[in-house]
């Protein structure tokens, strides 16, 4: 319930493929009302996706009496820029944890996180703002994940891994315990990261090696 005792009205920010999965997770939860999508692509406005309307551009959330926004854009920089813009205008970022995700009572989750079905976040993990913990990803004990990062489907992070702001961990990648990954890195699909990765690096392979 919001301050007026009403069920909060929530919208998904982004109506693309990732937005569909976010909406599906949000619809599985009680306690709020998903009223539709917001998207800056004018060709989507007025369409229906999963039975929910595309209400119009993202900046028009106030026009629809929306109480909170769920980040639903897969691209990390775009998600960061849009959510920073709208929260600076007093929008509230909403965290969604799918009922089939497992999140420890002792984990710390900030605003705007989406954790999908099968995701596991274990004790004393700390997850920053606007992070995606995608389908079947495992974040082990004492990990720290920075704002705007994306842990893709099937990724496994060993204990005490540190992921800095904006980094993308590709499908099925693995990060060994205690390894640190810098800001805005890309970890290739299936890579196994055995040592620290510097800021802005892209690494691929087994073991992972820098390609640029």
Overall 3D shape? globular
User: What is the straight-line distance between the termini?
Assistant: 48 Å
SS field, number of helical segments: 2
Could you report the average pLDDT, rounded to the nearest whole number?
95
**Considering DSSP H and I runs of 4 or more, what fraction of the residues is helical?**
10-25%
Instruction: State the total count of DSSP E strands.
Output: 24
Give a concise summary.
With 212 residues, the protein is mainly beta.
How would you describe this protein?
This protein has 212 residues and is mainly beta. The mean pLDDT is 95. The strands form five sheets. Strands 6-9-12-15-18-21-23-24 form an eight-stranded mixed beta sheet, covered by helices on one side. Strands 7-10-13-16-19-22 form a six-stranded parallel beta sheet, with no helix packed on it. The protein starts with 8 loop residues before the first strand and ends with a strand. A hairpin with a 4-residue loop joins strand 23 (202-204) and strand 24. The radius of gyration is 17 Å and the shape is globular. It has helices at 17-27, 76-87, and strands spanning 9-13, 33-38, 48-49, 52-53, 68-71, 96-97, 102-103, 108-109, 114-115, 120-121, 126-127, 132-133, 138-139, 144-145, 150-151, 156-157, 162-163, 168-169, 174-175, 180-181, 186-187, 192-193, 202-204, 209-210.
């Amino acid at each position: 319930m919001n301050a007026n005792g009403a069920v909060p009205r929530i919208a998904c920010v982004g109506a693309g493929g990732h937005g569909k999965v976010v909406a599906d997770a949000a619809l599985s939860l009680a306690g709020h009302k998903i009223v539709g999508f917001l998207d800056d692509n004018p060709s989507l406005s007025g369409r229906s996706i999963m039975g929910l309307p595309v209400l119009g551009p993202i900046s028009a959330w106030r026009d629809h009496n929306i109480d909170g926004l769920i980040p639903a854009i897969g691209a990390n920089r775009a998600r960061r820029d849009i959510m920073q813009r709208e929260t600076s205008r007093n929008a509230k970022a909403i965290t969604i944890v799918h009922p089939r995700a497992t999140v420890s009572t002792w984990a710390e989750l900030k605003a705007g996180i989406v954790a999908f079905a099968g995701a596991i976040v274990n004790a004393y993990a700390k997850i920053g703002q606007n992070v995606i913990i995608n389908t079947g990803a495992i974040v082990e004990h004492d990990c720290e994940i920075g704002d705007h990062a994306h842990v893709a489907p099937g990724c496994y992070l060993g204990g005490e891994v540190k992921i800095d702001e904006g980094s993308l961990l590709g499908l099925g990648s693995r990060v060994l315990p205690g390894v640190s990954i810098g800001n805005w890195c890309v970890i290739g699909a299936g890579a196994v990261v055995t040592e620290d990765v510097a800021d802005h690096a892209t690494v691929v392979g087994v073991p992972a090696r820098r390609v640029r």
